[in-house]
């Protein structure tokens, strides 16, 4: 139900008294005509607004009740021109609860315009003389204007209340994802905000905008809408966390590096990064649904903490591209991912690939010296390095990928030593 709104509450300008009084007989005629005026307004609304006829009967009756109350307020105002009255609060209080949810502000203004035109046609002829006719014509215009302003104020107040509630609900969802509280309540809150809980999602993290944050966050939402994505935004101190829906189903990243250039973000997501504050922006991996989004948030936040270790990182940068820095900063998940994505495939393919990679990287990435150390032909080393690239998606001759591969080798050795009881399980 719409809130009780008065001129004192919203700061609206009181209705100005009419310059000339209206006779008691004319006021009585206006009171008697109230029911007919409301019915005429309803008929005009049905004729000129096709959507109005499709409203349920109880909601059309609610509009009729609001119109009748408006006519009664108009007559009361004419009788006591020096008294400021509440223009629409009484009508909205007795209107059906869901009427405001079914009628938009544009539709309400259209109905007010139609009612004002009916008033202009039917009320002034009830005047006793020409002077009263002019008074009534001017009063209808003033009263109609005040009703339109009051309706706009009521809708604005309701929108502000709804927006504040949605913002609190959105913050709870984002906080729940960050903390890993993926229960039914979180899914229900997200659904109340229009989010599809079954949609694939990834988490973006970075610094909150410092220059006009509300406008920047609004621009972020508009950018997301233009590329057909849904977003949930949460500002946690100086940190900005964004849940971004993904158009494709499924959450696993395909093996190997995609066709796009290395370390480059998808162009639509790159546009969203412009609305973050200064500093790195990190993308977590895609997860299958909202319930599993904590894994994306965990990786993204760990990568954000480790991002200073790679000053030249793109913006945004994938959390997976910061695995070496994350492992060095003590992230056990990065340690595990490095071993599983590099060491395990090479071990499964045979020990020669792992030994060749280690000899190549630790020998200064020199092909000839690696071949001599392994007592094989250089072409054999080239073939094995291509196999390493096919299995891991990392190219040993690329400096950045070489760092990832070498860090993975160290992580694998530490894991093997930990299993034998020589070293702790983390880097």
UniProtKB/TrEMBL annotation:
It holds the Pfam family GGDEF_2. Residues 180-306 form the CdaR GGDEF-like domain. Transmembrane segments: none annotated. Gene3D superfamilies: PucR C-terminal helix-turn-helix domain (1.10.10.2840). Residues 353-410 form the PucR C-terminal helix-turn-helix domain. Belongs to the CdaR family. This is PucR family transcriptional regulator. It comes from the Bacteria.
């Amino acid at each position: 139900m719409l809130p009780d709104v008065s001129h004192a509450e919203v700061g609206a300008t009181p209705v100005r008294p009419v310059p000339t009084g209206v006779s008691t007989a004319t006021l009585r005629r206006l009171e008697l005509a109230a029911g007919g005026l409301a019915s005429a307004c309803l008929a005009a609304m049905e004729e000129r607004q096709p959507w109005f006829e499709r409203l349920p009967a109880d909601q059309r009756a609610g509009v009729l009740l609001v119109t009748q109350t408006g006519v009664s307020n108009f007559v009361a105002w004419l009788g006591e021109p020096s008294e400021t009255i509440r223009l629409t609060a009484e009508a909205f209080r007795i209107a059906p609860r869901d009427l405001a949810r079914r009628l938009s502000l544009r539709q309400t203004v259209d109905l007010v315009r139609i009612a004002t035109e009916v008033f202009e046609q039917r009320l002034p002829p009830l005047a006793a003389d020409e002077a009263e006719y002019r008074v009534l014509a001017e009063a209808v215009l003033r009263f109609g204007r005040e009703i339109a302003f009051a309706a706009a104020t009521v809708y604005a107040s309701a929108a502000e209340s709804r927006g504040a509630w949605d913002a609190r609900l959105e913050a709870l969802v984002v906080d729940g994802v960050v903390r890993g509280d993926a229960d039914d309540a979180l899914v229900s809150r997200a659904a109340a905000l229009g989010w599809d809980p079954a949609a694939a999602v990834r988490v973006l993290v970075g610094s909150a905008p410092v220059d006009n944050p509300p406008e920047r966050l609004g621009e972020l939402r508009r950018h997301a809408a233009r590329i057909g994505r849904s977003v949930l935004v949460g500002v946690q101190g100086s940190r900005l966390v964004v849940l971004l829906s993904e158009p494709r189903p499924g959450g696993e990243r395909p093996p190997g590096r995609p066709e796009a250039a290395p370390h480059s973000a998808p162009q639509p997501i790159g546009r969203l990064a412009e609305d973050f504050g200064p500093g790195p922006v990190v993308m977590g991996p895609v997860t299958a649904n909202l319930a599993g989004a904590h894994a994306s948030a965990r990786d993204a936040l760990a990568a954000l903490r480790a991002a200073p270790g790679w000053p030249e990182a793109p913006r945004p940068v994938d959390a997976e591209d910061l695995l070496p820095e994350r492992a060095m900063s003590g992230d056990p998940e990065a340690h595990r991912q490095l071993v599983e994505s590099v060491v395990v495939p090479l071990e499964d393919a045979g020990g020669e690939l792992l030994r060749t990679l280690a000899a190549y990287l630790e020998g200064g990435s020199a092909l000839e010296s690696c071949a001599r150390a392994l007592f094989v032909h250089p072409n054999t080393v080239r073939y094995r390095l291509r196999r390493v690239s096919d299995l891991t998606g990392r190219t040993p001759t690329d400096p950045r990928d070489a760092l990832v591969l070498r860090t993975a080798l160290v992580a694998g050795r530490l894991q093997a030593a930990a299993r034998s009881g020589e070293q702790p399980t983390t880097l």
